[in-house]
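User: quick one, fold this
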Amino acid sequence: MQKFNELKELVAAAEQDAVAFYEKGNKAAGTRLRGALQQTKNLAQDIRNEVTAKKNEGK
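Assistant:
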C-alpha cells in the first residue's frame, strides 16, 4: 500500500507542472511533467508486479 500512496503523491505533484504546461505554455514544466510521468509508469509497474506476486503466493 505504501507504493500506491507514493503513486498518488507523485500524480498530485505532477498536476502543478501539467497546469503550467497546458495552461501557461511553460515548456520547462512540460519536461518536468514528462519525467514525472515516466516515474509514474515505473512505479505503477512495480505495483503491478507486487500485486501479481502477492496474488500468486497462495498457489
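User: anything notable?
Assistant: The first helix runs from residue 2 to 24.
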